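User: Fold this, then the next.

Assistant: Folding the first:
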Amino acid sequence: MSAINEALIRDIVSEVLGRLGEPAASKSAAPASVPTQPACTCNGKAGGTRSTLRGKFGVFQDANEACTAAHEAFLQLQQKGVAARRKIEEIVKTLADKNAEAWGKLELDETKIGRLDHKIEKLQIIKLVPGVDWLRPDGRSGDHGITLEEYTPFGVVAAVTPSTHSIPTLSGNIVNIAAAGNAVVFNAHPAASRCAAVAVRAYNEAIFRETGIENIATIIEKPTMESFAAMCKHDAVRLLLVTGGPGVVKAAMQTGKRAICAGPGNPPVLVDDTACMKRAAKTIIQGAAYDNNLLCIGEKEVFALEDIADKLMTEMERSGAVRLNSSQLDALTKAAFTFKEAQGGGCPHASVNKDFIGKDPSVLAKAAGVNIPSGTQLLFAETDANHPFVVEEQMMPFLPIVRVKTVEEGIARSLEAEHGYKHTSIIHSHDVENMTAMARALDTTLFIKNGPCMAGLGLGGEGYLSYSVATPTGEGVTNPKTFCRVRRCVMVDNLRIY
């Protein structure tokens, strides 16, 4: 942790705490506002006497206490075994579904970004997150004995969650991490920390009733720069799971702890002249409009061959998207971005106006000076390849369409727009050679063909779900194995019975 200097701490603040929320408090956390339950000496399912750190049901003011309590829970989980892991998985999935409507509204009310129907759906599909059954040991025997390789936990995982999908990310992380036998401590994004604490408390109360383990998932109620730093350097924390931009990824990887990093994305879409335009238009809208384009895997810009670009845009209009003209696009661009003059007289640098992130299309339409029908899910317009809406990960229900002359140009433009994040890319094509060429060139973790972005995480496509897609560090879509060590147990002797 000593390797993190002040510059890196500032990176942490700007990336983890700054993108969509308010700046971190510079002072230490206030005294605990969560009442502490009296120490329990009853036996019941809990068994034995609980320490003074227990009784908070996962919600803590102090990062060190949160980490220590999570470590206690990890030790208890070790004793209670795989059955307790399965019970935790069941509880989280059941409560996420049961509370989806209430928690979705709670998160939307706090963050003011996204769509309620999709907030609800993101919790209802936590059941798609893989659990204990993914951890199958590998055994082999031979003339010299028996070897068993099995997946074992790290201990305590420290996680940073975004405001874009606060409770869903937290819930999926608990399933994966606890299924692997670990406990987890969260430093949630400040703009979505209250709803995250509500979910953590509910999960812990239910888990304690069923297993006697109370703090399997802990959270710092008022997350700050200091709480993040304290969490990272705590001795009990053996692994980091961090979501954010390049700054926080760099900081996490310099803590001396192993870091699983889910970095930024700016997913491009390529549409060639072999694709079904009607299907392409419908699925592009479906993906780009999902939760007002807050998904890191969401369609952010489209490159269309020039001979089918008009047809694609016509089909998008028929499917309910609203097209902006050049003056309306200019008005929206001026509102949705702030521009700073570059040093040395270069092109002005554009940054996203946070007031427009995740807002409804009606908000963007008002800024563009256009009236749109009620229920419109997406706006779009034709732009050039260097437009801010193409270059920046803008997270708004607006999609820029760029004409390209050839598939090769489209792939090159897609590679440039994706910025080498290796996160997600999408193609609409019936030409296998074009699919293969794009897949090889961009080399993204997720590559979706002829479907919406969500198909890459099991929604409309085959696969499994996770809201943490680790691209910079290469783990990809996280699952229980991501949070395990591999341990080999060897018995040497002539033990074969055949």
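Now the next one, as you asked:
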Amino acid sequence: MNLHYQEYGDTSAPLMVFLHGGGVSGWMWDKQVHYFSHFHCLVPDLPGHGKSIAIPFSIENSAERVVNLIEEKSNGKKVILIGFSLGAQIIVQLLSMKPNLIDCAIINSALVRPMTYAMKWIQPTIKLSAPLIKKRWFSKLQAKTLYVSDNDFEKYYEESSQITADALTRVLEENMSFTIPANFKEVTTNILVTVGEKEKSIMKQSAKDLVKANQHAKGVLIPNMGHGLSMARPNFFNHMVETWINEGAIPEESKKYMEE
């Protein structure tokens, strides 16, 4: 089964690929696709999500599928890769597999420190919470943490209701066990790593780890921001991406995330 994707914009322009986070699908990038309509935009639904829900999920397999899609569509053009959370982890994996494929990457809120203490609780927690997934009030709470707007809630609720307990377990196991691959240090891509100031400590430490792991990576800490920058502040996010692509610079509004 092939990965489902949507294609937008100017097909003669540089290729811009968006990888969504866990529990949502390609629609989370609607405001980015509209803003970057002068690019050739590809927005896949990752395995286990959206219209690719029937494809079993793993970070490595997802990366391989996205590589195939990029190689099919890029035709020698500049390639920009943007991902959030689970999608950002897939970018780290993809870059490590293909160190010279991508010209520019924006890695938003990627967990790269294994949460081994939490792994044993995944299955029992999901077993208990599975009946809640189909409850609107529960989905409302979850959507709020991701900055899902009221306009997008119905899409979020419909998709989250379709995810099986087994699929969700697989996604969380992959997410919580992910580490930076050894080959990441060889990546030649210009990489921007972002994390919200209000995110958990392990997320901020993960951002530092990524910056330290590759000489081409720079990091920013986004003030007063939790987990979900592109949906919470799409205008700022779009400007940040544009500035990084065109100038290799970090917007003044953000704080440089130093290697400490």
